[in-house]
Amino acid sequence: MMAGSTRSQDFCHNPHAGSLLQGLQELRSDNLLTDVILCVSGREIPCHRNVLAACSGYFRAMFCNGHRESQEHNVTIHDVGTNILQLLVDYAYTSKVTITDDNAVKLLEVANFFQIQPVRDACAKHISDNLTANDCLKMAHMGSMLSCPDLEKRAWSCATREFSGVCETPEFLYLTREQLIKLVSSDDLGASEESVYTAVMAWINHDIRERKKEMKDLLRWVRFPFMDRLYFLENVESNEAVREACQDFLTEARRYHMFPGEVQSPRARPRRASGLMEMVVIIGGTETRGTGAEDHAVISNHVMTTTVAAPSETSWSVTTRMKRNNDSGFAVAVLGKSDIIVSTGTRFAKDVWLYQPELNSWSKLAKMNTNRYNHKLAVVQGKVYAIGGKDDLSALLNVEIYDRNQNKWTEGIPLPQARYHHAAAVLEGKIYVMGGFGADHEPTATMYRFTPGDSQWREMEHMPQPGGRLNAAVLFGSIYVAGLGEGLMCKWNQWEWNPWNWMRWPVPFECGITTYQGKIYITGGHSGDSRGDKQIWCYDPEFESFKSGLQELRSDNLLTDVILCVSGREIPCHRNVLAACSGYFRAMFCNGHRESQEHKVTIHDVGTNILQLLVDYAYTSKVTITDDNAVKLLEGANFFQIQPVRDACVKFISGNLSSKNCLQMVRMGSMLSCPDLEKRAWSFVTREFSAVCGTRELLYLTREQLIKLVSSDDLGASEESVYTAVMAWINHDVRKRKTEMKDLLRWVRFPFMDRLYFMENVESNEAVRKACQDFLTEARRYHMFPGEVQSPRTRPRRTSGLKETLVVIGGTEKRSTTPDDPTVFSNAVMTTMVAAPSETSWSVTTRMKRNNDSGFAVAVLGKSDIIVSTGTSFAQEVWLYHPELNSWSKLAKMNTNRYNHKLVVVQGKVYAIGGKDDLSALSDVEIYDRNQNRWTTGIPLPQPRYHHAAVVLDGRIYVMGGFDADHRRTSTMYCFTPGDSKWKEEYLPQPGGRLNAAVLMGSIYVAGLYEGFMGKWNQWESWHWMKWPARVPFECGLTTYRGKIYITGGHSGDSRGGKQIWCYDPEFKSFKSAGNLQKGLYGHTCVTILKCC
């Protein structure tokens, strides 16, 4: 024996495992040492427990965990065929099994049952390799049941690829809704859209009673724009059920057929099997910017394309070159599906080219009318819009429109302000222009929207911050803008409560941005240095990584720490996710309530489906709002304090109001404290009152709600309908509501009723006569003398076809101050229907019949005719202007030459009061009868007056102040009632001349008495004085317009007229600025008429 260190050697006999299996098989064949017999269908299979347990999880559990079978010699196996069990036992001893088409499925099921993983995997592979259209759906189902994800995945892939055959199988009709959507939503679906539509309709019709409600959710995945147009017309549009459920999809398809390339939705993306493929095209750009005299800019003139989702430097193809080299201010747009229009970007060229990728050729188009660069092109309804930019001198606001059929550019509606280096995008047929530099070369934050056919651009919500050199792209209803801030991209969506949202994203400056394969691609750009970048970024709005990860945890029931229990259903969730998006759950889980410690929390008074939708939203930020769930979803979102869903529901409901539901939505908006919903529902009720007043809900309005409705100027109904509705409301509970009759009928505008209806239906109603005699008298008086009666009932509603119109007549622009500086008169008659008119909102409709007239007088005769008497010391002419005809008629001359007088109208007669002739002040009065076209002498004033004010109130004429025969200001106020033999005398608080007055709701308003104040008088109160925000102008115009006092122009003691318009609101007892005249005036006349609109 040798002493020293111990030596060792590791020995491994590689064939041992095979030898061991062979030895065990021989022992089994000779029935040696077998310790268990498997009994199946009358047959016995001797085995060794340890061999079975070593390769099968099922037998390991049976024999090693103290089960009864671990002690029994005979073990019966159920529900397994003899041959299949024999094959698996043989595999346990030999590691071999023969898989055939005939046994693969059964073998897979039993290998899965006995937990023999290698055989299970081999069977799954055999089946996956031999899938056909006839069996792939069955195998997808089996893969799901047996937890074979590879088999399931490959079976679904086969079903997608072979869809044309799959949809003919019986199994197709038994797919779940979710499985069918998974198929027909795939970009890889191997079938025409006609086949997809036919298959979906077959699935629905197989159980139409239950499945019809799923029609819209399923057909949203059919890509109608890529159907054969004749098939679409004959088979889709002709289907009434499809038209009813999917009108928006059909409209989208028709629009795509007319204007391909302008429609963007999941349905407007071609499937990969369609023969069409999306392609990214990069045009021009700067490689390096020059930094000095010897370091010139390097411009790319290439047009490069790729169809790769993640292109490398070598996967781009240079297909052509731009037609103008070194162009850095050009603009580009896609016309149709693939043609690219390029307008050159220089200050001295107007060239426009069309590149056709299918032919790889260029065509020269008509030149633009204006040189421009750093502009944008946008395509809407097949027309190309060239928007803004710069010319050689300045920034541009003009827009040109190109018509391909005529090969011609025409002028479009200009932008409100000049813009260049702005972004432009088209969304839902509207052009949006964002940011850019203004005429002062400063970045702007404006967002303008234009709808073809409109007369002007509309200003939208401003961007979060100003920006220039912007680029934008549109994806599924949102506009993405790059370039606002370093490292940031901004998203705008009109349906979100806060339309603008930031996304922190590595966005470089002056990058390219486009939509590709349902994602936003950002190409190149620079980070502030002189070199362009090669990097391409992709933003996928559907799968934001954080939300996606939380959703996966929830789907796999990992780390969930609370279960919401509702109506017997359990929804596992994460407390922190619920608390992060819901104020209700935040309070529940974060404030020590009992539920913060419980694993199961029961939710009451909320439907299962609604709660599921809201939980899904918490994890995905998405929720599908439909007509069927919008109201319940709003209630649930409001209850759980999930503001974005609440706001989205409000917008959805507001956009789908009808005469049947609008009153319910008013109530709901009030109950849920949703002022926007309540406001929009009220607006709809008001606008569609003719239809709403026939609903039962109207009868259950409160008194206050009904008054709110019928008092509105915007009520969309005839006065006959309004009266009928009010009476129906009263008669619904006449005993209690009869006392409200007068308060309600005071808002019915009886003067605008059909006279025969008024006589037969209103005056004949004894209860109405008794309660509202004064309203009926007022209406009869209005019918006899329109324009002379003033009350809330004599103002037409905006939908009546009549509209109050402000009319400014004549006046002086500038008074002569030296012989060389002549007086400038206005001879124009200007009108507007705007509440706060700007200088440009006035229309000059005609001119006065006598030029340079400064002492004329004006009154309104009837609803709209304007009588004008000339104001000179040597003429007696009187003219009648008819605004509806825009024509003048000459009337009978007055008996006396007069100027600086006043005209008023009472009981259809025109009174010419006071004034001056060539020698002296006048006290005489003349009366004009239109029927006789004749002036007669009236009762004279007690004293001569000129430059006085005159108005009519309650059928009486009031003459205030003015100058007397000695040319002194006076403080008299004379009152005359037609039929009396003399004028009554009262007094003003102080003397005044060159006064103006107007009447509003029973009170007389006078301007010119006190500097800085306007006076108010009525017969029940003494004089009141309203302080003016500024100095009260002299010789201003004064009229009643839209229920307020309007004060126009005037002067402040100098020689020039003012443009300012002021408005006094008696309800709020306040003045405010209300716009401007077209030009500065004083000594003019301002009246209000009713005009057809």
Automatic annotation (TrEMBL):
Keywords: Kelch repeat, Repeat
InterPro entries found in the cross-reference section: BACK (IPR011705), BTB/POZ_dom (IPR000210), Kelch-typ_b-propeller (IPR015915), Kelch_1 (IPR006652), SKP1/BTB/POZ_sf (IPR011333)
Gene3D superfamilies, per the entry: 1.25.40.420, Kelch-type beta propeller, Potassium Channel Kv1.1, Chain A
ATP-binding found in the keyword field: no
SMART domains tied to this protein: BACK (SM00875), BTB (SM00225), Kelch (SM00612)
Record-annotated BTB domain positions: 34-101, 560-627
Descriptive protein name: LOW QUALITY PROTEIN: uncharacterized protein LOC109467886
The encoding gene: LOC109467886
